[in-house]
Amino acid sequence: xxxxxxxxxLRQFARQHILVVGDVMLDHFIWGRVARISPEAxxxxxxxxxxxxxxxxxxxxxxxxxxxxxxxxxxGCVGHDAAGAQLTALLRxxxxxxxxxVVDADRPTTVKxxxxxxxxxxxxxxxxxxxxxxxxLHQQLLKNFQTQLPAGAAVIFEDYGKGVLTQALLxxxxxxxxxxxxxxxxxxxxxxxxxxxxxxxxTPNRAEAFAAAGLTNPPALDAVLADAPxxxxxxxxxxxxxxxxxxxxxxEHGMCLFRPGQPPHHIPTVAQEVFDVSGAGDTxxxxxxxxxxxxxxxxxxxxxxxxxxxxxxxKVGTATCALDELRAxxxxxxx
Length: 335
Fold this sequence. Notes:
By secondary structure, this protein is an alpha/beta fold. It has a single domain (7-36, 44-332), classed as UDP-N-acetylmuramoyl-L-alanine:D-glutamate ligase (3-Layer(aba) Sandwich), CATH 3.40.1190. 36% of the residues lie in helices and 25% in strands. The chain contains ten helices and 14 strands. The strands form three sheets. Strands 4-1-9-10-11-12-13-14 form an eight-stranded mixed β-sheet, sandwiched between helices. Strands 3-2-7-8 form a four-stranded mixed β-sheet. Helix 3 (82-93) links the parallel strand 5 and strand 6. The longest helix has 15 residues, at 298-312. It is globular, with a radius of gyration of 20 Å. The model has no long low-confidence stretch (mean pLDDT 93).
Protein backbone atom coordinates (compact mmCIF):
# COMPACT_ATOMS: atom_id res chain seq x y z
CA UNK A 1 0.00 0.00 0.00
CA UNK A 2 1.33 3.43 -0.90
CA UNK A 3 2.14 5.79 1.96
CA UNK A 4 -0.34 8.44 0.83
CA UNK A 5 -3.17 5.92 0.74
CA UNK A 6 -2.23 4.49 4.16
CA UNK A 7 -2.11 7.94 5.74
CA UNK A 8 -5.46 8.88 4.20
CA UNK A 9 -7.05 5.85 5.87
CA LEU A 10 -5.28 6.34 9.21
CA ARG A 11 -6.35 10.00 9.36
CA GLN A 12 -9.97 8.82 9.34
CA PHE A 13 -9.52 6.54 12.38
CA ALA A 14 -10.19 9.31 14.90
CA ARG A 15 -13.57 10.06 13.28
CA GLN A 16 -14.91 6.53 13.74
CA HIS A 17 -17.02 5.42 16.71
CA ILE A 18 -17.05 1.65 17.17
CA LEU A 19 -19.29 -0.39 19.46
CA VAL A 20 -17.77 -3.55 20.97
CA VAL A 21 -20.23 -6.10 22.33
CA GLY A 22 -19.21 -9.27 24.14
CA ASP A 23 -17.35 -10.85 27.01
CA VAL A 24 -15.29 -8.30 28.92
CA MET A 25 -12.69 -9.52 31.40
CA LEU A 26 -9.78 -8.42 33.52
CA ASP A 27 -6.31 -9.63 32.56
CA HIS A 28 -4.04 -10.02 35.60
CA PHE A 29 -0.32 -10.54 35.02
CA ILE A 30 2.12 -11.72 37.68
CA TRP A 31 5.66 -11.00 36.51
CA GLY A 32 8.68 -12.68 38.02
CA ARG A 33 11.72 -14.84 37.50
CA VAL A 34 12.47 -18.51 37.96
CA ALA A 35 15.66 -19.39 39.79
CA ARG A 36 14.91 -22.88 41.10
CA ILE A 37 12.55 -25.86 41.07
CA SER A 38 10.30 -26.43 44.06
CA PRO A 39 11.36 -29.21 46.46
CA GLU A 40 7.66 -29.98 46.97
CA ALA A 41 6.90 -30.87 43.33
CA UNK A 42 8.64 -30.69 39.93
CA UNK A 43 7.40 -27.16 39.25
CA UNK A 44 9.25 -23.83 38.93
CA UNK A 45 9.27 -21.41 41.83
CA UNK A 46 8.44 -17.94 40.53
CA UNK A 47 9.86 -15.05 42.52
CA UNK A 48 7.23 -12.35 42.03
CA UNK A 49 8.61 -8.95 41.02
CA UNK A 50 5.46 -7.05 40.04
CA UNK A 51 1.81 -7.33 39.03
CA UNK A 52 -0.21 -5.53 36.37
CA UNK A 53 -3.82 -5.40 35.21
CA UNK A 54 -5.25 -4.77 31.73
CA UNK A 55 -8.68 -4.89 30.09
CA UNK A 56 -9.12 -8.30 28.47
CA UNK A 57 -11.44 -10.05 26.02
CA UNK A 58 -13.90 -7.64 24.43
CA UNK A 59 -12.46 -4.95 26.69
CA UNK A 60 -9.05 -5.51 25.09
CA UNK A 61 -10.61 -5.02 21.66
CA UNK A 62 -11.93 -1.68 22.94
CA UNK A 63 -8.48 -0.85 24.33
CA UNK A 64 -6.92 -1.61 20.93
CA UNK A 65 -9.38 0.71 19.22
CA UNK A 66 -8.54 3.55 21.61
CA UNK A 67 -4.81 3.01 21.03
CA UNK A 68 -5.50 3.66 17.35
CA UNK A 69 -7.39 6.87 18.28
CA UNK A 70 -10.80 5.42 17.49
CA UNK A 71 -13.77 6.30 19.70
CA UNK A 72 -15.28 3.25 21.35
CA UNK A 73 -18.15 2.16 23.56
CA UNK A 74 -17.99 -1.28 25.17
CA UNK A 75 -21.09 -3.30 26.01
CA GLY A 76 -20.92 -6.38 28.21
CA CYS A 77 -21.31 -7.60 31.76
CA VAL A 78 -19.20 -7.27 34.91
CA GLY A 79 -19.79 -8.60 38.39
CA HIS A 80 -20.63 -6.52 41.43
CA ASP A 81 -17.10 -6.97 42.77
CA ALA A 82 -13.69 -5.36 43.07
CA ALA A 83 -12.52 -6.82 39.74
CA GLY A 84 -15.53 -5.32 37.95
CA ALA A 85 -14.89 -1.91 39.49
CA GLN A 86 -11.20 -2.14 38.57
CA LEU A 87 -11.93 -3.15 34.98
CA THR A 88 -14.45 -0.34 34.56
CA ALA A 89 -11.98 2.18 35.99
CA LEU A 90 -9.19 0.96 33.70
CA LEU A 91 -11.41 1.35 30.64
CA ARG A 92 -12.52 4.84 31.64
CA UNK A 93 -8.92 5.88 32.32
CA UNK A 94 -8.08 4.82 28.76
CA UNK A 95 -10.95 6.77 27.26
CA UNK A 96 -13.37 3.90 26.61
CA UNK A 97 -17.05 4.67 27.20
CA UNK A 98 -18.46 2.15 29.71
CA UNK A 99 -22.09 3.22 30.08
CA UNK A 100 -23.05 0.21 27.95
CA UNK A 101 -21.91 -2.26 30.64
CA VAL A 102 -24.41 -4.06 32.86
CA VAL A 103 -23.69 -5.39 36.35
CA ASP A 104 -24.65 -8.90 37.49
CA ALA A 105 -24.54 -9.34 41.24
CA ASP A 106 -24.80 -13.12 40.87
CA ARG A 107 -21.65 -13.75 38.83
CA PRO A 108 -18.03 -12.69 39.26
CA THR A 109 -16.18 -10.55 36.79
CA THR A 110 -14.12 -12.86 34.57
CA VAL A 111 -10.45 -12.64 35.57
CA LYS A 112 -7.59 -14.37 33.74
CA UNK A 113 -4.38 -14.53 35.75
CA UNK A 114 -1.15 -15.27 33.89
CA UNK A 115 2.18 -15.95 35.55
CA UNK A 116 5.07 -14.82 33.33
CA UNK A 117 8.77 -15.42 33.95
CA UNK A 118 11.68 -14.70 31.58
CA UNK A 119 9.16 -13.56 28.93
CA UNK A 120 7.42 -16.97 29.03
CA UNK A 121 3.94 -17.70 30.35
CA UNK A 122 4.24 -20.37 33.06
CA UNK A 123 0.58 -20.95 33.87
CA UNK A 124 -2.83 -19.30 33.56
CA UNK A 125 -5.80 -19.69 35.86
CA UNK A 126 -9.30 -18.30 35.30
CA UNK A 127 -12.04 -17.06 37.59
CA UNK A 128 -15.35 -17.10 35.74
CA UNK A 129 -18.92 -18.25 35.37
CA UNK A 130 -20.26 -18.84 31.87
CA UNK A 131 -24.03 -19.15 32.19
CA UNK A 132 -26.11 -16.86 29.92
CA UNK A 133 -27.29 -13.51 31.24
CA UNK A 134 -30.61 -13.54 33.01
CA UNK A 135 -33.58 -12.15 31.01
CA UNK A 136 -33.53 -8.75 32.73
CA LEU A 137 -29.84 -8.16 31.97
CA HIS A 138 -30.33 -9.50 28.44
CA GLN A 139 -32.98 -6.83 27.84
CA GLN A 140 -30.90 -4.12 29.49
CA LEU A 141 -27.92 -4.90 27.28
CA LEU A 142 -30.14 -4.80 24.18
CA LYS A 143 -31.58 -1.47 25.31
CA ASN A 144 -28.08 -0.06 25.90
CA PHE A 145 -27.09 -1.20 22.40
CA GLN A 146 -30.10 0.45 20.78
CA THR A 147 -29.27 3.69 22.59
CA GLN A 148 -25.62 3.73 21.52
CA LEU A 149 -25.98 2.42 17.96
CA PRO A 150 -26.90 5.67 16.15
CA ALA A 151 -23.50 7.19 17.00
CA GLY A 152 -21.56 4.11 15.86
CA ALA A 153 -19.98 3.44 12.48
CA ALA A 154 -19.44 -0.26 13.15
CA VAL A 155 -20.19 -3.03 15.64
CA ILE A 156 -17.78 -5.75 16.73
CA PHE A 157 -19.23 -8.94 18.26
CA GLU A 158 -16.55 -10.46 20.48
CA ASP A 159 -17.47 -13.93 21.79
CA TYR A 160 -15.27 -15.62 24.38
CA GLY A 161 -17.95 -18.10 25.44
CA LYS A 162 -18.49 -16.46 28.83
CA GLY A 163 -22.27 -16.12 28.52
CA VAL A 164 -22.92 -12.64 27.16
CA LEU A 165 -23.43 -13.44 23.48
CA THR A 166 -26.19 -16.00 23.10
CA GLN A 167 -27.69 -16.84 19.71
CA ALA A 168 -30.85 -14.90 20.55
CA LEU A 169 -28.97 -11.77 21.61
CA LEU A 170 -26.58 -11.95 18.64
CA UNK A 171 -29.51 -12.24 16.24
CA UNK A 172 -31.29 -9.26 17.80
CA UNK A 173 -28.17 -7.07 17.86
CA UNK A 174 -27.12 -7.95 14.33
CA UNK A 175 -30.61 -7.40 12.94
CA UNK A 176 -30.73 -3.97 14.58
CA UNK A 177 -27.27 -3.02 13.29
CA UNK A 178 -28.04 -4.24 9.77
CA UNK A 179 -31.24 -2.23 9.62
CA UNK A 180 -29.23 0.83 10.65
CA UNK A 181 -26.70 0.21 7.84
CA UNK A 182 -23.74 -0.34 10.17
CA UNK A 183 -20.58 -2.35 9.48
CA UNK A 184 -20.74 -5.58 11.50
CA UNK A 185 -17.79 -7.84 12.34
CA UNK A 186 -17.26 -10.81 14.62
CA UNK A 187 -14.51 -12.84 16.22
CA UNK A 188 -15.94 -16.35 16.76
CA UNK A 189 -15.11 -18.84 19.50
CA UNK A 190 -14.29 -22.47 18.69
CA UNK A 191 -15.82 -23.75 21.96
CA UNK A 192 -19.03 -21.73 21.66
CA UNK A 193 -20.12 -21.87 18.04
CA UNK A 194 -22.78 -19.29 17.24
CA UNK A 195 -24.49 -19.11 13.85
CA UNK A 196 -23.19 -16.01 12.12
CA UNK A 197 -24.80 -14.90 8.89
CA UNK A 198 -24.47 -11.88 6.66
CA UNK A 199 -21.83 -9.89 8.55
CA UNK A 200 -19.40 -7.47 6.92
CA UNK A 201 -16.40 -9.47 8.15
CA UNK A 202 -15.57 -12.44 10.37
CA THR A 203 -12.04 -13.12 11.65
CA PRO A 204 -11.55 -16.67 12.96
CA ASN A 205 -8.10 -18.13 13.48
CA ARG A 206 -7.30 -21.38 11.67
CA ALA A 207 -8.51 -23.64 14.51
CA GLU A 208 -11.75 -21.68 14.91
CA ALA A 209 -12.39 -21.74 11.16
CA PHE A 210 -11.98 -25.50 10.85
CA ALA A 211 -14.11 -26.09 13.97
CA ALA A 212 -16.90 -23.88 12.61
CA ALA A 213 -16.75 -25.63 9.24
CA GLY A 214 -16.86 -29.07 10.88
CA LEU A 215 -13.64 -30.09 9.17
CA THR A 216 -10.47 -31.78 10.42
CA ASN A 217 -7.63 -29.30 10.83
CA PRO A 218 -4.46 -30.82 9.31
CA PRO A 219 -0.97 -29.30 9.64
CA ALA A 220 -0.68 -26.00 7.81
CA LEU A 221 1.36 -25.62 4.63
CA ASP A 222 3.85 -22.81 4.16
CA ALA A 223 2.36 -22.21 0.69
CA VAL A 224 -0.98 -20.89 1.93
CA LEU A 225 -2.69 -20.69 -1.46
CA ALA A 226 -1.72 -24.33 -2.10
CA ASP A 227 -3.20 -25.44 1.24
CA ALA A 228 -6.21 -27.35 -0.14
CA PRO A 229 -7.86 -28.05 3.26
CA UNK A 230 -7.65 -24.34 4.17
CA UNK A 231 -9.12 -23.28 0.83
CA UNK A 232 -11.92 -25.81 1.25
CA UNK A 233 -12.58 -24.52 4.76
CA UNK A 234 -12.72 -20.91 3.59
CA UNK A 235 -15.08 -21.74 0.75
CA UNK A 236 -17.39 -23.67 3.08
CA UNK A 237 -17.52 -20.83 5.62
CA UNK A 238 -18.35 -18.33 2.86
CA UNK A 239 -21.38 -20.47 2.01
CA UNK A 240 -22.25 -21.11 5.65
CA UNK A 241 -21.82 -17.61 7.12
CA UNK A 242 -22.33 -15.55 3.93
CA UNK A 243 -20.07 -12.68 5.06
CA UNK A 244 -18.77 -10.00 2.76
CA UNK A 245 -15.27 -10.83 4.00
CA UNK A 246 -13.79 -13.83 5.79
CA UNK A 247 -10.30 -13.19 7.16
CA UNK A 248 -8.69 -16.34 8.58
CA UNK A 249 -5.67 -15.51 10.73
CA UNK A 250 -2.86 -18.03 10.37
CA UNK A 251 -0.19 -17.10 12.93
CA GLU A 252 3.26 -17.38 11.39
CA HIS A 253 1.67 -17.80 7.95
CA GLY A 254 -0.08 -14.44 8.10
CA MET A 255 -3.72 -14.15 7.02
CA CYS A 256 -5.92 -15.30 4.16
CA LEU A 257 -8.85 -13.21 2.93
CA PHE A 258 -11.83 -14.96 1.34
CA ARG A 259 -14.59 -13.05 -0.46
CA PRO A 260 -17.56 -14.25 -2.51
CA GLY A 261 -16.69 -14.45 -6.20
CA GLN A 262 -13.04 -13.51 -5.61
CA PRO A 263 -9.91 -15.69 -5.41
CA PRO A 264 -8.39 -16.10 -1.92
CA HIS A 265 -5.82 -13.44 -1.08
CA HIS A 266 -2.82 -14.37 1.10
CA ILE A 267 -1.17 -11.72 3.27
CA PRO A 268 2.21 -12.94 4.62
CA THR A 269 3.07 -12.18 8.24
CA VAL A 270 5.22 -9.16 8.99
CA ALA A 271 5.99 -10.23 12.58
CA GLN A 272 9.74 -10.04 13.23
CA GLU A 273 9.74 -11.67 16.67
CA VAL A 274 6.99 -13.52 18.52
CA PHE A 275 6.99 -13.19 22.30
CA ASP A 276 3.28 -13.51 23.11
CA VAL A 277 0.29 -14.26 20.85
CA SER A 278 -2.32 -13.52 23.55
CA GLY A 279 -4.56 -10.71 22.32
CA ALA A 280 -3.32 -10.76 18.71
CA GLY A 281 -6.79 -11.72 17.49
CA ASP A 282 -8.26 -8.79 19.42
CA THR A 283 -5.83 -6.44 17.69
CA UNK A 284 -6.64 -7.92 14.28
CA UNK A 285 -10.40 -7.50 14.48
CA UNK A 286 -10.14 -4.06 16.07
CA UNK A 287 -7.83 -2.78 13.34
CA UNK A 288 -9.71 -4.47 10.49
CA UNK A 289 -13.03 -3.00 11.63
CA UNK A 290 -11.63 0.46 12.21
CA UNK A 291 -9.97 0.44 8.79
CA UNK A 292 -13.19 -0.66 7.05
CA UNK A 293 -15.11 2.07 8.86
CA UNK A 294 -12.42 4.56 7.76
CA UNK A 295 -13.01 3.70 4.10
CA UNK A 296 -10.32 1.09 3.45
CA UNK A 297 -10.98 -1.55 0.83
CA UNK A 298 -11.09 -5.11 2.24
CA UNK A 299 -7.55 -6.05 1.13
CA UNK A 300 -6.22 -2.74 2.49
CA UNK A 301 -8.00 -3.28 5.80
CA UNK A 302 -6.63 -6.82 6.03
CA UNK A 303 -3.09 -5.59 5.34
CA UNK A 304 -3.39 -2.97 8.08
CA UNK A 305 -4.74 -5.59 10.51
CA UNK A 306 -1.86 -7.91 9.60
CA UNK A 307 0.72 -5.24 10.40
CA UNK A 308 -0.99 -4.42 13.71
CA UNK A 309 -1.07 -8.09 14.74
CA UNK A 310 2.58 -8.46 13.77
CA UNK A 311 3.44 -5.60 16.10
CA UNK A 312 1.59 -6.87 19.18
CA UNK A 313 2.97 -10.42 19.05
CA UNK A 314 6.40 -8.87 19.46
CA LYS A 315 5.35 -7.56 22.88
CA VAL A 316 4.87 -9.48 26.12
CA GLY A 317 1.44 -9.40 27.71
CA THR A 318 -1.90 -8.09 26.44
CA ALA A 319 -0.55 -5.38 24.12
CA THR A 320 -1.84 -2.76 21.71
CA CYS A 321 -0.55 -1.09 18.56
CA ALA A 322 -0.21 2.66 18.05
CA LEU A 323 -0.56 4.62 14.82
CA ASP A 324 3.13 5.51 14.73
CA GLU A 325 4.02 1.82 15.06
CA LEU A 326 1.70 0.99 12.15
CA ARG A 327 3.29 3.61 9.94
CA ALA A 328 6.78 2.42 10.87
CA UNK A 329 5.87 -1.20 10.13
CA UNK A 330 4.62 -0.32 6.65
CA UNK A 331 7.77 1.69 6.00
CA UNK A 332 9.97 -1.24 7.00
CA UNK A 333 8.17 -3.63 4.67
CA UNK A 334 7.76 -1.43 1.59
CA UNK A 335 11.41 -0.58 1.02
